[in-house]
Amino acid sequence: MKRTISVLAVAALVLALFAGCGKTEGGKAASSSSAGASPKEVTFLCPSAAGGAMDANSRLIAPYIQKHLGKPVNVVNMGGSAGWVGWKHLHDAPRDGSMLSYANFPNMINGYLDPKNTVGLDKSNFEFLALYTSDINVVAANAKEKRYSNAKEFFDYARKNLVTVADAGARTDDAVAVALLEKALGFKFKRVHFQNSAEGLAALYGGHVDAWVGNVSEVLAPSKNGEMKVLAVLDKKRSEYLPNVQTAHEVGVEVVNSSSRGIIAAKGLDPTEKEKIMQAIKKAMEDPEQLAAAEKQGVGVTPLYGADFEAWVNEQDKNIRGIFDLLD
Amino acid sequence: MLSILQQLFTLECLLALVLGTAGGLVVGALPGLTATMGMSLLIPFSYKMGPAPAMIMIGAVYVSAVYGGSFSAILIHTPGTPASAATAIDGYELTKQGKGLKAIGVSTIASVMGGTISAVALLFVAPQLVKVSLLFSTPEYFLIAIFGLTIVGSLSSDNMLKGLISGAFGLLLGMVGMNVVPYARYSFGNLNLAGGIDLVPAMIGLFSIPQILSQAEKRVRRKKEGESLSADRELRGLIDNTRGLKGSFFPSFEEFKTLLPTILRASGLGIFIGILPGAGGDIGSWVGYNDAKSRSKNKELFGKGSLEGVAGSEAGNNAVCGGALIPAFTLGIPGSAGAAVMLGALMVQGFSPGRELFTKYADMTYAILIGFLVANILMGLFGYLVARHTVRLASLPQGILLPVITLLSVVGSFAIRNNIFDVYVMLFFGIVGYFMKKFSFPAAPTVLALILGPMAERNLINSIQMAKVNVALYYLSRPLCWVFLILIIGSLVSPVISKKRKAKKAQKYA
Fold first, then answer.
1. In the prediction, which pLDDT does A299 show?
2. DSSP character string of A229-241
3. B414 contacts in A (CB within 8 Å)?
4. Distance CA A189, CA B395 (A)
5. Are residues A141 and A124 in the same domain?
6. Domain limit, last residue, from A187, A218, A251
7. How far apart are alpha carbons A63 and B361 in whole angstroms?
8. Residues A129 and A140 in one domain
9. CA nearest B389: which of B29, B97, B83, B99?
10. DSSP string covering B258-273, please?
11. Would A205 be classed as within a structural domain?
């Protein structure tokens, strides 16, 4: 009896070891590849924990990069410190094309602009390969709201009255959108920084806040169900998903902001590897199979490659520097 | 409804249900392994599964470990989990009288009924609570979190001061990082600390390492005094005695009729205790036991082998499970340490507790809740089949068991984010937890405060941001705030009053 139990226990131990190895494989691949030769595998860092939009996006696009690159692309989650644990890891890894990372904006820019951020890295330390998706910001109100029902009425009301506006956190794209609005309008809202969109939405539905700032993808279902009304889209042109909603631009408030995500590498990525990876990413982004999968998940693919992506990042950087002092 | 069943009746979910229930029984029956330990060790290994099977598996381990703890409590007088301590009193007496199998039968019926009733309560109360939760906003959440903190310390241990200190420790750790404020607080320039202390490695450390260390320590101590052999022999003897277990498993109908009111009352009490933050299965079982005792017609049997005692304790501790999940799923406030682990698992999967669980992700949530309900029934079936054999696991060589658990703790903490820092966090909490255990500071208040502290702070800040007038007036202008303010004052004042009352009583008898 005792023998059998011992054997079983040892078997469990060996199994546990294997389980551990399976999970760390991706991390190991990065450091073990020698310089010069093309790495056998690519680690695709997702700088946030499993679950959530960052993780879902990473796992959506990575298999198609693998398909077009012709070698394994493993998604490894490395959350912490609003992404900087992962990006520091990317920065410290070999630049032989064995490691890429997903990145979210404006979060990344807010991070390095923050004087309290101790990482000591900024956009000059990274190469911006491709923007994958952009989710435009919107302003919404409770469905039963009587004081305003479009962008103009809302801005006029807020000019004369103190208005509480919910966002998904002090340094999120939503908070940046609020600050940009304040700067353009020349007056202040009463900002309420929730921890995520869901908490802010609950406060909006319950009538505890006057307005809410979020993203197009978040309001499609509730606005269709009549749970809320969308007041303004923060873009130069109307959203194809919300054709009846005014843009802020239309009423003279020139604000453009979004939550965007793309693929980055450490600065100084081996040029021949970079070329190969760029080709694979381009093909992956245009792959009809990938586009169909993205549509199913409600991800609007809005690609920008290389120099275009970098110019976009610089533009974002400039906008945010203009309002950084306004952020809480 | 169909889409819920579609989510539930997948191979993955059914497998998770069966494995979780069977595994939970083993974890529960093994003395030294607790429900929260099994659950928290499972999180890293389950997060690659879909959310529904992962949550069902962890929930199944929760309920069946709490039930499985009664086997070793009854048969070898060693509670498999702390929640079965009350069961051991009368359960083992019954075993000595040759009625061990019937005691297990009663424990099975009571656990299944208590668990099922609480799961039904969860299934029906939670959605209603979510419906009215739109009336709640940040001021109410702040007050609920404070209310939770006021009872965390006082309910979770015999020594209120130690409970409070343990809770304060959790509050302090909850302040680390930028969870609440947009800059890194108390991170000492460490990038990993800037993100705050991750709940899952903290829980793995607190719930498993102290258990391992104190078990290992027991071994060393015994060896020193040359007692190891005799202690082992004693245990073997107790286990051997269970081989000849005879008699009926199920109580007679007459017996069942007398037990039924006890079970129902203990279930109700268990659910209520579950909903209160901080009071877990251990409290539930004692309350169920004491209630059974005070209402029994055969009080003299208590302590000498009362089936009612077993029923009250076991219905109580299993009813806590479902009750504790009600505030966890709807408000994000765990009612017990086990519910805190469930909440941690849910967040690892990328979901936040609250309204969206019951609207946007309703199919998944109901699949989890129904899976939880089924696990409560399934565990009874498994228990009927294997209960008498599981105690033999208690003689499993600790020299093999303990290293395996240590290994799982390390690998599991690492696997969640592939970050070695999380392993250090786990070890830190493990070592601190060991000393806490040694000086009998309860671990549950630390975990609950680690959740409730940031929640209170965040909502206080948000409510200040939402107040267009004076903050105090804003709170007082909301009727629901009054309710929670009164509850807070009540829970702060009641220990003082009961202390005075006891003192008066003592005076009378003196």
1. 82
2. EEEEE-SSS--SS
3. 20, 23-24
4. 66
5. no
6. A251
7. 26
8. no
9. B29
10. HHHHHHHHHHHHHHHH
11. yes
Q: Quick one: A151 and A109 in the same domain?
A: no
Among A251, A279, A309, where does a domain finish? A251
- Whether residue A44 sits in one domain with residue A109: yes
- What's the rounded Cα separation, in Å, for the pair B356 and B413? 28
| Same domain, residue pair A155 and A241 | yes
Number of domains in chain A: 2
In this structure, of A89-98, B96-105, B275-284, B360-369, the range with the lowest mean pLDDT score is B275-284
In a domain, A2, yes or no: no
Pick the closest to residue B152 from B453, B486, B496 (CA basis): B453
What pTM, to 2 d.p., does this model score? Answer: 0.80
Same domain assignment for residues A243 and A167: yes
- CB contact under 8 Å between B191 and A118, yes or no, is yes
Q: 3-state class of B363 per DSSP?
A: helix
Contact A76 B351 (CB under 8 A): no
Minimum-distance CB partner of A85 among B133, B195, B466: B195
Taking only residues 123 to 182 of chain A, the set having a beta carbon closer than 8 angstroms to any beta carbon of chain B reads: 162, 164, 169-171
Q: Is A31 on the interface with B (CB under 8 A)?
A: no
Instruction: Give the angle B151-B154-B158 at the CA atoms, nearest 5°.
Output: 150
Residue A30 falls inside a structural domain: no
Q: How far is CA B294 from CA B284, B298, B409, B458, in A?
A: 15, 10, 42, 43
Given a contact cutoff of 8 angstroms between Cβ atoms, the answer to whether B319 and B275 are in contact is no
Q: Tell me the residue range of the domain where A145 lies.
A: 135-251
Mean pLDDT of chain B: 86
Integer-rounded Cα Rg, in Å, for chain A is: 22
Instruction: Report the C-alpha gap between B384 and B381 in whole angstroms.
Output: 5
pLDDT > 90? residue B46:
no
Return the H-helix or E-strand segment holding B243.
Answer: none
Q: What is the pLDDT of residues A290-307, one digit of tens each?
A: 999 888 777 889 899 989
Position of tokens 């959506």? A60
B466 touches chain A (CB under 8 A): yes
Average pLDDT of the segment spanning A198-208 = 89
Secondary structure (3-state) at B476: helix
Partner-chain residue, chosen from B137, B400, B416, that has the shortest CB–CB distance to A203? B137
Please give the pLDDT value at position B154: 64
- Looking at beta carbons, which residues of chain A come within 8 Å of B419? 78-80, 85
Q: Which one of B133, B417, B468 has the shortest CB-CB distance to A77?
A: B417
Residue A9 burial by Cβ neighbours in a 10 Å radius (0-12, 13-18, 19+): middle
Question: Does A210 lie in the same domain as A199?
Answer: yes
CATH number of the CATH domain containing A236: 3.40.190.10
Same domain as A189, residue A175: yes
Where do the DSSP E strands lie in chain A?
42-46, 73-77, 99-105, 126-142, 164-167, 190-193, 211-215, 228-233, 258-266, 301-305
Q: Could you tell me the sign of the dihedral formed by the alpha carbons of B27, B33, B34, B36, in that order?
A: negative
pLDDT band at B368 (very low <50, low <70, confident <90, very high): very high
Q: Is residue A139 part of a domain?
A: yes
- CB distance A192–B465 less than 8 Å? yes
The C-alpha of B462 sits at a distance from chain A's nearest C-alpha, in angstroms, of 6
Q: Could you read off the pLDDT of B234-248 as tens digits, one per residue?
A: 777 777 776 666 677
| Angle between helices B199-224 and B228-241 in degrees, nearest 10 | 110
- Of B190, B186, B180, nearest in space to A118 by CA: B190
Q: What is the CATH number of the domain that holds A56?
A: 3.40.190.150
Residue B482 reports pLDDT greater than 90? yes
**Which of B436, B99, B401, B144 shows the shortest CA–CA distance to B242?**
B99
Share of chain B above pLDDT 90, in %: 37
For the segment B47-51, the average pLDDT, to the nearest whole number, is 82
Question: For residues B320 and A285, what is the distance between their CA atoms, to the nearest angstrom?
Answer: 50
**Alpha-carbon separation of residue A92 from A122, A125, A263 (angstroms):** 14, 11, 17
